């Protein structure tokens, strides 16, 4: 064996491909076959035993995985170079092999001369890959370069002008106070409320707009980030006063400025009589209680509910109606002028005049008046509500059990479907592609022995037919089991599908992935198959030029939006036609997963398909071949 001979080990689990590669290597004067292997374990052992310069390895073989085998060969036989030969040409598989140090990646169906050239180049420590694969693997770098941009700061005068324009539309009076404590801006409500013109209010201090007794309180509103509403009195230009509610805050901008909101409470006086009418007309019992917890007023419904005359109730403690319970009205805590009290509700037990008790929902609301702080109790008998709630809870429990069963069934159905797709794809790869690859290699060997040009032309056409068959079979494998989906990358799988549609039809696409979490395997498969059905409708029927696909995280789920600029259609007319099952399948898949689907279209306006499915883990999901999730990819466009 001369010094210029290149020792080669061939590893492929298909006998026909393995023997065809062996014969091809034997036909080359500078190559010598020194070992054969039928799985990853034997490939590493043959490399260690024979110390070849090049190992030609099938990526998908039993008893191991390709990246681990490449690492083992590089560690134990540093001089060996690995050339991958596979039926799979997807980006993830290629990048996985290159990441561990493979010196070449060829797709089965590559011409025999290119295989021999790749072996020779690998022995020289040179890299080999088809231009199509190289362009596909470099696409993420081009997208990253296109996506770079610089965010400019937009905060400034225009933002402040927007704030002032917004404040001008406020339904109450608004004053903007500068750092010197002077009014710089007043909206129309404030000018009307105080009786001043715009120029007259400017440079006034807030204390000029309230009586002297409120000077200190008004000054406390300025310069604070936020102050709770406070009841004070405003003073108009003519000296008259009106009850008002003041609150303060901070206006964002380049300079520190305060903002004061004023609400005129004068109309509330006229509303007091209407308030009493409202109490009387309420369908619930309403009781007004003073600061000592004694009943000051009660409506007709209170008499009917508790069986007392209202004259009998006036002046009595509210405990007569709601005895022996922590009512927690907290009247003393509410009597703080710095903070406005907030109401709340609670479930208590009411007692009627005949001592019978009933469950009651009690709403407790504070009411400030000139006489002091009062409390309004709204009391409702919820006996029937509690009964209905019990029935509802039992119904919800039944629905939850049904939903869990449905989710479990969905998980098993999706898993079984994907497992069957995977089995078919594996059969195609392990049988049909291998046989056609071997036949292609044999055919190319035969062609080199022919001298008649006509016979060579026939052989060339036959070789092109075999290559077309291999290409279509590889595409079929991708359709049945996208490798990106196996790697847990939903966006990658959809990108592969969109790229296929672009190649076949010329429809350009834009894909946006804004998911922050990766869906479970079964949910990811369901999302992909549902989107695939919608995109097939675009390819077959839409006559579109572009399609826009978005993956969005929404309400603990995934929202998929597919928008095309095609011809559009009348959904009611098309969906009622026999044979148009695609749209129904999209809606049914989303509903089975516990989600929803919406389709909008009209002639001449394109079509929008939206569907949402929850991202919760599918219960009882059996382990499947889809792999572990990867982080989602960013926004892309071809």
From TrEMBL:
Modified residues (4-aspartylphosphate): 58
Region (Disordered): 614-638
Every PAS domain range: 159-235, 271-324
Source organism, top-level taxon: Bacteria
Pro residues bias locations: 620-631
SUPFAM superfamilies reported for this sequence: ATPase domain of HSP90 chaperone/DNA topoisomerase II/histidine kinase, CheY-like, PYP-like sensor domain (PAS domain)
Residue ranges occupied by any PAC domain in the UniProt entry: 344-394
UniProt-listed Enzyme Commission number(s): 2.7.13.3
PROSITE patterns hit by this protein: PAC (PS50113), PAS (PS50112), RESPONSE_REGULATORY (PS50110)
Stored InterPro entries: CheY-like_superfamily, HATPase_C_sf, HATPase_dom, NreC/VraR/RcsB-like_REC, PAS, PAS-assoc_C, PAS-like_dom_sf, PAS_4
UniProt protein name: histidine kinase
């Amino acid at each position: 064996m001369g010094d210029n001979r290149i020792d080669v080990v061939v590893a492929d689990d298909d006998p026909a491909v393995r023997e065809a590669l062996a014969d091809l290597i034997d036909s080359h004067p500078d190559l010598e076959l020194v070992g054969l292997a039928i799985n990853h374990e034997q490939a590493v052992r043959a490399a260690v035993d024979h110390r070849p310069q090049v190992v030609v390895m099938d990526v998908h073989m039993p008893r191991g995985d390709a990246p681990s085998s490449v690492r083992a060969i590089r560690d134990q036989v540093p001089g060996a170079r690995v050339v991958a030969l596979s039926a799979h040409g997807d980006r993830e598989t290629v990048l996985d092999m290159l990441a561990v140090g493979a010196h070449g990646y060829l797709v089965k169906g590559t011409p025999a001369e290119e295989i021999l050239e790749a072996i020779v180049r690998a022995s020289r420590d040179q890299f080999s890959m088809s231009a199509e694969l190289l362009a596909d693997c470099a696409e993420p770098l081009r997208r990253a370069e296109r996506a770079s941009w610089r965010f400019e700061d937009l905060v400034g005068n225009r933002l402040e002008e927007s704030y002032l324009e917004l404040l001008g539309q406020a339904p109450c009076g608004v004053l903007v106070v500068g750092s010197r404590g002077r009014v710089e801006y007043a909206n129309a409500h404030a000018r009307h409320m105080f009786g001043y013109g715009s120029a007259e209010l400017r440079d006034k201090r807030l204390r000029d707009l309230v009586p002297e007794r409120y000077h200190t309180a008004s000054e406390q509103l300025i310069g604070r980030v936020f102050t709770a509403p406070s009841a004070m009195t405003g003073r108009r230009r003519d000296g008259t006063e009106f009850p008002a509610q003041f609150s303060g805050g901070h206006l964002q901008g380049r300079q520190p400025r305060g903002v004061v909101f004023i609400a005129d409470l004068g109309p509330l006086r006229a509303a007091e009589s209407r308030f009493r009418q409202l109490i009387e007309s309420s369908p619930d019992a309403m009781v007004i209680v003073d600061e000592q917890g004694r009943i000051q007023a009660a409506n007709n419904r209170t008499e009917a509910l508790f069986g007392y005359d209202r004259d009998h109730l006036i002046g009595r403690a509210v405990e007569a109606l709601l005895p022996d319970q922590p009512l927690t009205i907290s009247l003393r805590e509410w009597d703080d002028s710095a903070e406005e009290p907030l109401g709340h509700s609670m479930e208590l037990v009411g007692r009627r005049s005949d001592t019978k008790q009933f469950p009651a929902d009690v709403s407790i609301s504070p009411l400030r008046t000139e006489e002091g702080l009062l409390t309004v109790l709204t009391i409702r008998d919820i006996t029937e509500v509690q009964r209905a709630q019990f029935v509802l809870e039992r119904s919800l429990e039944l629905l939850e059990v049904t939903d869990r069963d449905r989710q479990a069934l969905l998980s098993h159905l999706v898993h079984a479907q994907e497992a069957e797709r995977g089995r078919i794809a594996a059969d195609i790869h392990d049988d049909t592609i291998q046989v056609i690859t071997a036949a292609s290699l044999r055919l190319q060997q035969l062609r080199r022995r022919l001298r008649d040009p006509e016979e060579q032309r026939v052989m060339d056409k036959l070789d092109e037919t075999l290559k077309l068959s291999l290409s279509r079979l590889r595409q079929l494998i991708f359709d049945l089991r996208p490798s990106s989906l196996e790697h847990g990358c939903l966006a990658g799988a959809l990108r592969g599908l969109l790229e296929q549609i672009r190649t076949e039809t010329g429809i350009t696409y834009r894909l946006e992935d804004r998911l922050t979490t990766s869906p479970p395997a079964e949910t990811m498969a369901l999302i992909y198959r549902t989107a695939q059905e919608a995109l097939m409708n675009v390819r077959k029927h839409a006559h579109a030029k572009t399609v826009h696909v978005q993956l969005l995280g929404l309400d603990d789920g995934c929202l998929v939006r597919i928008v095309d600029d095609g011809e559009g259609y009348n959904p009611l007319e098309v969906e009622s036609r026999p044979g148009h099952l695609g749209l129904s399948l999209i809606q049914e898949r989303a509903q089975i997963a516990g989600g929803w689907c919406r389709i909008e279209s009209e002639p001449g306006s394109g079509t929008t398909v939206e569907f949402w499915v929850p991202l919760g883990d599918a219960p009882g999901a059996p382990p499947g071949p889809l792999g572990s999730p990867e982080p989602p990819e960013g926004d892309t466009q071809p």
